[in-house]
Specification:
single chain; alpha+beta; Aspartate Aminotransferase, domain 1; three-stranded antiparallel sheet; two-stranded antiparallel sheet; 5 strands; globular; disordered N terminus
Length: 85
């Protein structure tokens, strides 16, 4: 598979840029235990903001990119997540 360069959250931040193999990196699981609210509260707030995550373990959530998700969608989701946090 051909590798492409993407900057999912910020094109100005080289730390967030990365090489992704198309079709392989479509899930991110992250821990929300240190954000000052429960996982379920976080999921509710994100749903209200139009961003859907899936609950994982007690303090983890999963984001999944589907084929119809664009880079702009990812940027929007990142911005809305930052606003909720």
């Amino acid at each position: 598979m051909k590798k492409r360069r993407y900057s999912p959250l910020s094109s100005s931040d080289p730390e967030r840029s990365g090489s992704f193999v198309a079709g392989r990196n479509h899930m991110v699981i992250f821990d929300v235990s240190e954000i000052g609210r429960s996982r379920d509260d976080f999921l509710t707030l994100m749903a209200r903001a139009g961003v859907l995550f899936t609950p994982e373990r007690e303090s983890q959530v999963r984001a999944v990119m589907h084929l119809d998700v664009t880079l702009d969608d990812v940027k929007t989701a990142g911005n809305r997540t930052t606003e909720v946090l």
